[in-house]
Design goal:
The chain is mainly α. The protein contains 5 helices and 2 strands, in the order H-E-H-H-E-H-H. It has a single domain, classed as Winged helix-like DNA-binding domain superfamily/Winged helix DNA-binding domain (Arc Repressor Mutant, subunit A, Orthogonal Bundle), CATH 1.10.10.10. Strands 1-2 form a two-stranded parallel ribbon.
Length: about 110
């Protein structure tokens, strides 16, 4: 599926993304690429990012990070980053470069939908 996919196709893909992300347990993270691969095409990581920008409130969007364990969201109000704050509240730790150790906090329990 490309970004030029029909609206129904994109919405169907987004819904599958949301179903997968809801499975990620508290205190763990997955990457955009992992979600895309679980849906059958690891090259759609960017589209997973688009889905996360518009996700419903019940989707734990903050548990999806980039392939280096970094956050793709920007801080708001100075240096406050709501994604980082939510992950820290769940016990996820960041290194001095602001990255998450994916070997420690990464979750690989994704199945295909």
């Amino acid at each position: 599926m490309s970004p030029k996919t029909s609206k129904d196709g994109k919405e169907g893909f987004f819904q599958k993304v949301y179903e997968l992300v809801k499975q990620v347990p508290e205190g763990h993270v997955v990457t955009y690429g992992q979600v895309a691969a679980a849906l059958g095409n690891a090259r759609q990581a960017r589209m997973v990012g688009w889905a996360m920008r518009t996700c419903p409130h019940d989707v734990p969007w903050h548990r999806v990070v980039n392939a280096q364990g970094g956050l793709s969201t920007r801080p708001i109000h100075g240096s406050f980053n709501p994604q980082r704050a939510r992950l820290e509240d769940e016990g996820v730790e960041f290194d001095h470069n602001g990255r998450i150790d994916l070997d420690t906090y990464g979750w690989d329990g994704m199945g295909k939908i």
